[in-house]
Design goal:
two-stranded parallel ribbon; DNA polymerase, domain 1; about 10% strand; globular; mainly alpha; about 200 residues; Rossmann fold; two-stranded antiparallel ribbon; 6 strands
């Protein structure tokens, strides 16, 4: 999702949190992202949104509300409309899904934070926090394929992080490293997957 279906700008999120809390952005980064907390949250350390938000605030060393967390997350995301339109086109004839390394609170608020992705993918949005495993572990791709009712050999995976694409290929999928929308769509056309 982040980096493929939208631009995710952590600096914008840090600036939004700084405006809310008065804590300098670099301190916020060090306390939350620099601590490894988010990586652990991505793989299901926190079972629900409330426990995740409590832990986020503990690392932040400042209490923010659920709504403030949502606003800061949404401020960091700008939809890639051309990629979303391509996904809509693909979804007319093929199964499409999202696999994201992400936390319970984003899962529970995605319709507010990024409604466009829910419009396009519906219920086929899978979160690492539900699987207690994350990309690039090959097992997460196998589980996601199974949840989609597909074999890994029939799946094509894309990600902006090369190591995540390599994990999918190790699992048996085809893979395309996403660098920008134009080259991604060209690569899709070359596979015969996307012909518009």
């Amino acid at each position: 999702m982040d980096g493929v279906l939208c631009d995710y700008d952590l600096h914008k999120r840090l600036r939004a949190l700084q405006a809310m809390t008065g804590i300098p952005a670099q301190q916020i980064h060090n306390r939350v992202w620099g601590s490894g907390f988010e990586d652990q949250a991505d793989i299901g350390t926190y079972q629900d949104s409330d426990s995740y938000l409590d832990a986020f605030c503990q690392h932040l060393q400042h209490r923010i509300t659920r709504q403030e967390w949502i606003e800061a997350r949404a401020a960091s995301m700008t939809a890639y409309e051309d990629v979303l339109e391509a996904a809509e086109h693909l979804g007319q004839n093929d199964k499409i899904a999202v696999l994201t390394n992400n936390v319970p609170l984003l899962k529970d608020t995605l319709e507010v934070v990024f409604p466009r992705v829910v419009d396009v993918f519906g219920a086929k949005i899978f979160f690492s926090c539900d699987m207690a495993i994350g990309k690039p572990d090959p097992e997460i791709y196998r589980r996601t394929a199974a949840l989609c009712g597909s074999s890994v050999e029939d799946c094509l995976f894309t990600d902006d992080k090369l190591e995540n694409v390599e994990g999918a290929i190790t699992a048996g999928m085809q893979g395309i490293h996403f660098t920008d929308a134009r080259s991604f769509l060209q690569k899709l056309r070359s596979t015969g997957t996307y012909l518009a």
